[in-house]
Every structure is written in C-alpha cells, then in structure tokens.
Amino acid sequence: MINALRGMKDLEGQNAFYYEKIIKVCEEIVKNYGFNLILTPHLELSKLFKRSVGESSDIAQKEMYEFVDKGGHEVCLRPEGTAGIVRSYIEQKSDKTQSVKRWFYHGSMFRYERPQKGRLREFHQFGVESFGTKSVYEDVNMILMLAEIFNRLEIKFELLLNSLGCPVCFPIYRDKFVEFLNSKETLCEDCQKRKELNPIRILDCKNEDCQKLLSDAPVLNSSLCETCKKDFKLLQNSLRDNGIEFQLDAKLVRGLDYYSKTAFEFINDEIGAKSAIAGGGRYDRLIENLGGKKGYGIGFAIGIERLIAILEQKEQKISRSGIYLCALDELYIPKLLKIATKLRKNRKVFLSYEAKKLAKHLSNADSANAQIFLCMGENEEKDNTLFYKNLENKIEKKLLIEALEKEL
Ligand code: HAM
C-alpha cells in the first residue's frame, strides 16, 4: 500500500467543492479590484526564497523542500507565492518603468512543518500582489478585499494591524530594541539566532520566558517617523470609515522578513486555537533586495485549507445539479448517448452506460447529487419519451424527447 506523504492530502468530494467555491468567490472579488491571473512555477532557485523570506525565518531555517536538480542547480518547491511573483515582475523589466501590476494567484505551497489540523506540508493559497503603487489606499484595498471575501464566505475574523516602519525609522527602532535586549539575560536558543539575523522576529517568539522578558520592550509602532505615522493613521481612519474593525498589535512582525510599513493578519478561532487565515503587508524593499529597481509592492495570501476546515464545520451541503440519464435495457444506450451529447452543450449530464433496475439507478443519481433523473424503459422507448423525476421537489412526469431541451 502506498500512502500520501505525511502532511499532504488529496482534495476531493466535499472539500474539493469548498476549494472551488473559495477560489470562485476570491476571483470574483479581486477581479473587481482590477487584479489579473498570474501563475508562476512551483520550483524556483532556493536563493530566491532565502533572499526574500529571510535567513532568520522558520521557512529558510528548517522548512524548505530543497534539492539539487540534474543540472546541479539548488532548487526548492515554493514555500510561498510572493517571491516568485516579484522575480517575475523584475524579469519582465516592469520594475524599470515602475509599472502598476495587479496580479492574483492560487496553488500549492510547500513547507516542511509539523502537520496538525489546518497545518499541512503541501497547502494551497489564494493571494494577490500589487506593484507600483505607493498610496496607502492600496493598503486599504487589500484589507477591504479580504474582509469582503470572508464576509461572502460567512467566515468570522479578527483583524490584527501593525506598521513596521520604513528604512528611515526602522533601523532606529532596531538599534533601540537591540540595546534593550543586551540589557536582559538569556533568550531562548532560537531568539539568540534571531538576535544576530533579524532581532525584531524576537517579538514574535512563542516562548513564555521570552515574552515575559519583552514586557517592557520599546514599542515598534511608537517609534515611527512622521511619514509612516501619517500613513498608518490614514490607513486606520480609512478602515474605520469603511466599517472595518481592527486591533493594533505592536508585536505583529509576521514570519517573513520582507515586510515594511503595513503588516496585517486575519485570525479565526472556529477550528480550535486562534489561527491565521490570511496575512500580508507591504514589501517595498523586496524588489530591490531581489536585484530590481526600488519600487512598491504589497499583497496578501489566504490559507485555503484553513477556510475549508472552517466551512466543513458549518456543513454546507453541495447543491444538486445536473441530469442523470439512464436506461433499463442496454439496447437503448446509443439513443441516450445522442441525447446526452445534445444536452451537454449547456448542461451537466451523468450518462449511465449500464442497464439497471429503476431503484438502483435512482439511488446512483442520488449519490451523484444529480438534480434531474431521466430514464428510458420499454414504454418510453416505444413512444419516444423519457421518465422524468426532479430529485429536489420529487415531481415525476413523462417528457417527449423532442421537447426535452424546452422542458428541462
Ligand atoms: P503567510 O502568513 O506565511 O504569508 O501565509 C499566508 C497564509 O497561508 C497563512 O495565514 C495561513 O492561513 C496559510 N498557511 C501558512 N502555512 C500553512 C500551512 N503549513 N498549512 C496550511 N496553511 C498555511 C505568506 O505566505 C505571504 N506570501 C503572504 C503575502 C503575500 N504577503 C504579501 N503578499
């Protein structure tokens, strides 16, 4: 017996139905905000991610699926979508002209994490990335899109918001923070590494002793420069104006190192402990860090499996759709094939290739979640009709084959 790898799951049945529903809702909403589809490769050079998510991140430290390909290149399965899309923006030379690009994407991401409910090693994200827009109203739009997506899917959320400052104010804060850390005793082993690579990730540490130690640490968003302060205020006022509630969280630094200014996370507690269902923020520095011309970028990604787990609990039923077409005698199947081909021009048809008793066909139609049942027996074959049953409202009748398209 060969099983799927740990932390990797088949998506089918009810979960596949949720997957399609989530993608459909997300696409409809982001297209109305002017976003277009981009699909980038699942495999990229490892250094793309190391340089973008940062050496200090858990992803770069221990979660990448890396290997050397047959050409001797160090490659890895993408752990997230942003880096590949920034690479594409630069490769298209859009950074040179500071072109405005608004892209959305969905697909698999790979992280070698400890699997648990809502945390997989291969999982799916729906995300957007917007380039070339400095205005804070683009940050507002990111959050409005996410709020609309979750409202449409009837998923509750809490929004956490922070500003990580810019290249002017962030280094001043970092120095203050490191000075504070130097005055304290031991940090956990991970945080000692973080102190060298990217000290503010320590704010995010889950270790209780580290958290206690940080209780009187300098606060990130009270060290912002005038421009960052102004933008952060404008963001908050616009969200309030648009009826979006949020909580400021000065310790929200996110698990990836590329953010500056706006950072946000959408949290939900319907599948046990509070977990992030989406996260994102501004990453203006990343374009330059990956070799492009200085520019502007902002985006978010939603964890689709986490939404599926929430929707699963609400037990929405797959709605019935399509026609189940069948016969009581195999001789009638060629006739049915012709009918099916005609109907399939604009309808879903499940055609049964085997003759069965009426009750068995009805039960198969029910399992297939068909809405309409059509069957040909001896009488129907003679008078060119089909037995019709609506599996939703249970209405039964005979339908003339030539009038089928009009009647259905
Ligand atoms: P992230 O916070 O690492 O951000 O991931 C976004 C979302 O993906 C999380 O909020 C969570 O719902 C889901 N997720 C993460 N890891 C797992 C996992 N192991 N299993 C299931 N779901 C998971 C990013 O990936 C950034 N690229 C987002 C972004 C786009 N920032 C700017 N643009």
Automatic annotation (TrEMBL):
GO terms for biological process: histidyl-tRNA aminoacylation. It is an enzyme of class 6 (ligase). Residues 1-334 form the Aminoacyl-transfer RNA synthetases class-II family profile domain. GO terms for molecular function: ATP binding; histidine-tRNA ligase activity. It is found in: Cytoplasm. L-histidine binds at residues 80-82, 111, 125, 129, 254, 258-259. CDD domains: HisRS-like_core (cd00773). It catalyses: tRNA(His) + L-histidine + ATP = L-histidyl-tRNA(His) + AMP + diphosphate + H(+). Keywords: Aminoacyl-tRNA synthetase, ATP-binding, Cytoplasm, Ligase, Nucleotide-binding, Protein biosynthesis. It holds the Pfam family HGTP_anticodon. Its EC number is 6.1.1.21. GO terms for cellular component: cytoplasm. Its main location: cytoplasm. Homodimer. HAMAP family: His_tRNA_synth. Belongs to the class-II aminoacyl-tRNA synthetase family. NCBIfam families: hisS. This is Histidine--tRNA ligase. It comes from Campylobacter cuniculorum DSM 23162 = LMG 24588.
